[in-house]
């Protein structure tokens, strides 16, 4: 089944439900972005030897924030 047809069925018919789901996902995006910023700040205060190990985690948080932001935009576009 194509995603364009599946997504609205998955989310149900209620516009209010769509709005609530999108709001919830936007909150998740904000948390990933907040975590990435916090890790960046921590990273800037770490000794160089620890930065290499932790920089991968910061990159993952940034990646997750970007992926969620794109997913939310796609969902919002498909349900409106």
What do these coordinates show?
- With 80 residues, this protein is an all-alpha fold.
- The chain contains three helices and no strands.
- Helix 2 (15-45) packs antiparallel against helix 3.
- The mean pLDDT is 81.
* C-alpha Rg (nearest Å): 17 Å
For the terminal residues, how far apart are their CA atoms?
A: 20 Å
Give the number of DSSP strands: 0
Helix content: over 70%
Order of helical and strand elements: HHH
Oligomer: single chain
Features:
80 residues; mainly alpha; elongated
Helices and strands in order:
Elements: H1 3-11, H2 15-45, H3 48-79
Helix pairs in contact: 2-3
Concise overview:
With 80 residues, the chain is mainly alpha-helical.
């Amino acid at each position: 089944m194509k995603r364009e047809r599946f997504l609205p069925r998955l989310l149900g018919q209620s516009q209010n439900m769509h709005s609530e789901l999108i709001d919830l996902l936007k909150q998740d995006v904000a948390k990933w972005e907040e975590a990435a910023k916090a890790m960046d700040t921590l990273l800037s205060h770490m000794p160089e030897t620890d930065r290499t190990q932790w920089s991968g985690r910061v990159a993952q948080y940034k990646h997750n924030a970007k992926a969620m932001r794109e997913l939310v935009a796609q969902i919002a576009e498909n349900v409106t």
